[in-house]
Design a protein that fits this description.
This protein is of the alpha/beta class. The chain folds into 2 domains: 2-119 and 307-370, NAD(P)-binding Rossmann-like Domain (Rossmann fold, 3-Layer(aba) Sandwich), CATH 3.40.50; 131-299, 3-Layer(aba) Sandwich (Rossmann fold), CATH 3.40.50. Helix content is 37%, strand content 16%. The chain has helices at residues 20-28, 47-53, 61-67, 79-82, 101-110, 131-148, 178-189, 201-211, 222-230, 252-257, 306-335, 337-340, 353-359, 367-370, and strands at residues 2-5, 32-36, 56-58, 70-72, 90-93, 113-116, 170-174, 193-198, 216-219, 234-237, 263-266, 287-290, 293-296, 343-346, 349-350. The strands form 2 sheets. An 8-stranded mixed β-sheet has the order 3-2-1-4-5-6-14-15, sandwiched between helices. The protein has a 7-stranded mixed β-sheet with strand order 9-8-7-10-11-13-12, with helices on both faces.
Length: 371
């Protein structure tokens, strides 16, 4: 199979779909890999590194899209990239379709087979292709929030860990999943007063088992969310419903009642955000202010640490890339129900129930196409 790896073009996105070691593995399996020139610059990988791994370096992305049987990316294809997709071509990347009707329509119109990293599941539970980036984003969220709380950046002028004789900052983490767990680890390490809110008793119990009394756990109700958000210095939005738009847990009214100079870092922004006042931002212009509350809503947070993120991502995507290339999408999806859960769009149809529901499409089960 011919695998294409274009250079990412989303604003300040420096990750790349395949590392040189991943390319070497694909070539060893008998596949051809085309990598766009300079695609690996953000992770410190040169064109010569890719050539040494067996890749062919291509100057123009259009040539990659025209020749490749499978396109491997990191972020969702941008508008001009979507125009280059074609029927029977495989797209393997993050998609986050539920809050993005324009992308969804273009992918449906393309006729391509689009497999989303974020809805591939695991026999052990969870979302293994989303997890590495959730770990990175959770850890970065505390760094970003602490930075925004500094007075020169418009914040309340609070040091999260405080100092002897001075109160530490209160961090409220909405969602105790992968993002929440890793955000809590950094916040605890910084000495903050950490409160974690979740609606699952089992998840809260697991969090308690890991962190003990170093954090406070709260069962999620509207009253609990409102109480703790209004008292917070830093709110981390880490809720996730796989494939679906994020629930709006923080209302506009709550934001207007928050402390002036407090900060919201909405990690859920890829799925539309869990705050009613959230809108996607970029690393070039990461924050904005609503009612004196700083909002950090960068939609590709892990892109800020591309080397760490790309290698962590390739650790989990490479086995699936090889499976798809070795056997073709139909046999690979039939043999692996968890990879099949990643199929979001195929041959002009929506094959993910949550995306279909949120965007008003008819849902077609993947089994209808796999035979």
């Amino acid at each position: 199979m011919k695998i294409g790896v274009p250079k990412e073009i989303k604003n300040h996105e420096y990750r790349v779909g395949m590392t040189p070691p991943s390319v070497r593995e694909a070539v060893a399996h008998g596949h051809g890999v085309m990598v766009q020139t300079h695609a690996g610059e953000g992770i410190g990988a040169t064109d010569d590194d890719y050539r040494s791994a067996g890749a062919t370096i291509i100057d123009e992305p259009a040539d990659i899209f025209a020749a490749a049987d499978m396109i491997v990316k990191v972020k969702e294809p941008q508008s001009n990239e979507r125009k280059m997709l074609r029927e029977h071509q495989i797209l393997f990347t993050y998609l986050h379709l539920a809050p993005d009707p324009d992308q969804t329509k273009d992918l449906v119109d393309s006729g391509a087979t689009c497999i989303a990293y974020e809805t591939v599941t695991s026999p052990f539970g969870g979302l293994p292709l989303l997890a590495p980036m959730s770990k990175v984003a959770g850890r970065m969220a505390i760094q970003a929030g602490a930075h925004c709380l500094e007075h020169p950046h418009g914040g309340r002028g609070i040091l999260l860990g405080g100092v002897p004789g001075v109160d530490r900052g209160k961090v409220v983490i909405l969602g105790a999943g992968v993002v929440g767990k890793h955000a809590a680890a950094i916040a605890v390490g910084m000495g903050a007063d950490v409160w974690v809110v979740d609606r699952s008793p089992e998840v809260i119990e697991a969090h308690w088992q890991q962190f003990g009394r170093s954090t406070h756990t709260v069962f999620s109700t509207q009253d609990a969310v409102e109480k703790h958000v209004l008292d917070a210095d830093l709110v981390i939005g880490g809720v996730l419903i796989p494939g679906a738009s994020a629930p709006k847990l923080v209302t506009r009214e709550m934001v207007s009642a928050m402390k002036p100079g407090s900060v919201i870092v909405d990690v859920a922004i890829d799925q539309g955000g869990c705050c009613e006042t959230s809108k996607a931002t970029t690393h070039a212009d990461p924050t904005y202010v609503v009612d004196d509350v700083i909002h950090y809503c960068v939609a590709n947070m892990p892109g800020g640490v591309p080397r760490t993120s790309t290698y962590a991502l390739n650790n989990v995507t490479l086995p699936h890339i090889l499976r798809l290339a070795d056997h073709g999408y139909k046999e690979a999806l039939k043999a692996d129900t968890h990879l099949c859960n990643g199929l979001n769009v195929h041959a002009g149809h929506i094959t993910n129930a949550e995306v279909a529901r949120d965007l008003g499409y008819d849902y077609k089960a993947p089994s209808q196409f796999l035979g």
